[in-house]
Amino acid sequence: MSKKITFIGAGSTVFAKNVLGDVMLTPALQEFELAIFDIDAERLSDSERMLNNIKKTSGSKCTIKSYSDRKEALRGAKYVVNAIQVGGYDPCTITDFEIPKKYGLRQTIADTVGIGGIFRNLRTIPVMLGFAEDMREVCPDALFLNYTNPMAVLTNVMNTYGGIRTVGLCHSVQGCVSHLFKDLEMDATGVQWKIAGINHMAWLLEVNKDGVDLYPEIKRRAAEKQKEKHHDMVRYEMMLKFGYYITESSEHNAEYHPYFIKRNYPELVDRFNIPLDEYPRRCIEQIGNWKKMREELISDANLSHTRSEEYASYIFEAIETNVPFKIGGNVMNTGGLITNLPREACVEVPCLVDSSGITPTFVGDLPAQAAALNRTNINTQLLTIEAAITGKKEHIYHAAMLDPHTSAELSLDDIVSMCDDLIEAHGDWLPKYK
Questions:
Q1: Can you count the helices (H) and strands (E) in the chain?
Q2: How much of the chain exceeds pLDDT 90, in percent?
Q3: Over 70: is that where the pLDDT of 1 sits?
Q4: How far is the C-alpha of 378 from the C-alpha of 247, rounded, in Å?
Q5: pLDDT band at 175 (very low <50, low <70, confident <90, very high)
Q6: Which of 118, 151, 198, 388 has the fewest CB atoms nearer than 10 Å to its CB?
Q7: DSSP string spanning 376-400?
């Protein structure tokens, strides 16, 4: 296996800067080729220029090479990083929001579960399985790092149906405790914590300092903060009602549950400060800023980089040096890592990384209510996979019918009709369903 790291979706210039810039600053990775690939030739060229600028200022010995042929980019890779988005903002993200809105179904982010997450999966899974087919031919032993949402489903598919050793990486575990403590004006120094569950709905199971459980003080401060509007009201409400803090944002969790976005109770959206249609607004803002930001990155011959907190380079470093590193990783629940979640699910658990690769840790049972909430989302995830693998349209309906938010708002007939409208609107972005 050659010393080669392949980045698919390298047209995402800022993310490529973070991940591959980190690699160039890591002593153990200096002899690696950084192979970059993207279907957008112009953006790929921009990323190559940007990375060469960092190489020059950092003195890195890494080799940077762009590829127009995906299979050649993958050939012989030891590690593969995935950061694609299929369909982009226009037309697919717009479609994911606007058609459900006609049925009275509102969303915030729509990239994980829910009706938007289902259709993002359905258009992304065939592309990912194409990657897997290439990898089985030209780099079958490579480790695949998936950064693309919907994280749990895509990581599951690559492991289960792609036959590729895959770990899913998400920022929500990394930032969970520091974000919470900053928000509650608590000192996070020396705090020990444990997180497990599923992606975007993992649970802060333990949080203590010097053997003292900090949850009572966390909940006291959270209850006080709920008296006025703030940006994280959904997660605080879930913690106060179900007992544990959730890793991902309130914007996300507002649409993972049936309790917050409801046509018959519009006051809940205002009460919990829920930003409906937040992701499309963010996309428009990012598109507006992107051209200027990209030009600044690629034209700066003195561009420097500071190693980020992205897991990728630390995973590569731990494997190459055998110096252990701990991550929160999305992996298959093989062997019952979380014993009260389905074994066929993808779960997010602490993992140890060393020269043996990525070794997930055993968690055992989650608190009963936390596991129950996870299972409501796992149901939709597994039915979405069933739809993608079998090509049967009925399983798209089943996935939507089992989604907590969708099923709380729409009748069965409306769910079927909405799915049909979405399938038609996506056109060639989706495979043909029976």
A1: 17, 13
A2: 95
A3: no
A4: 16
A5: very high
A6: 151
A7: HHHHHHHHHHHHHHH--HHHHHHHH
Q: Can you tell me whether residue 171 is helix, strand or coil?
A: helix
DSSP letters, 355-370, are TTEEEEPP-BPPPHHH
Residue in the block written with tokens 């980089």: 305
In tens, the pLDDT along 44-83 reads 999 999 999 999 999 999 999 999 999 999 999 999 999 9
pLDDT of residue 296: 85
298 pLDDT higher than 90: no
Average pLDDT value for residue range 107-131: 98
DSSP one-letter string for 210-262: TTEE-HHHHHHHHHHHTTS--TTHHHHHHHHHHSSEESS-HHHHTTTSSSS--
Q: Are 177 and 188 in contact (CB under 8 A)?
A: yes
Integer Cα distance of 202 and 195 in angstroms: 6
Q: Is the pTM of this model over 0.70?
A: yes
* Portion of the chain with pLDDT greater than 70, in percent: 100
The type of residue at 6 is T
Task: Determine which one of 171, 231, 252, 398 is catalytic.
Answer: 171
Q: 340 with 156: CB under 8 angstroms?
A: no
Q: List, in sequence order, every residue forming a beta bridge with 64; answer none if it has no partner.
A: 34
The answer to whether residue 361 scores a pLDDT higher than 70 is yes
Which class for 300: exposed (0-12), middle (13-18), buried (19 or more C-beta within 10 A)? middle
Exposure string of 164-201, with b = 16+ CB inside 10 Å and e = fewer, is bbbbbbbebbbebbebbbebbebebeebebebbbbbbb
pLDDT digits (tens, 9 = 90+) for 234-293: 999 999 999 999 999 999 999 999 999 999 999 999 999 999 999 999 998 888 787 778
Residue 128 in this model has a pLDDT that exceeds 80: yes
- Is 171 annotated as catalytic? yes
Structure tokens at 102: 């006609």
Strand blocks (E) in 84-178: 143-146, 166-168
Has residue 39 got a pLDDT over 90?
yes
All residues at 6 or more sequence positions from 68 whose CB lies less than 8 Å from its CB, including other chains: 37, 41
- Residue 349 DSSP SS3: strand
**Burial class, 227, CB count within 10 angstroms (exposed 0-12 / middle 13-18 / buried 19+):** exposed
Round to whole Å and give the CA distance between 82 and 311.
13
Residues 6+ positions from 119 with CB-CB distance below 8 Å:
92, 95, 96, 422, 426, 430
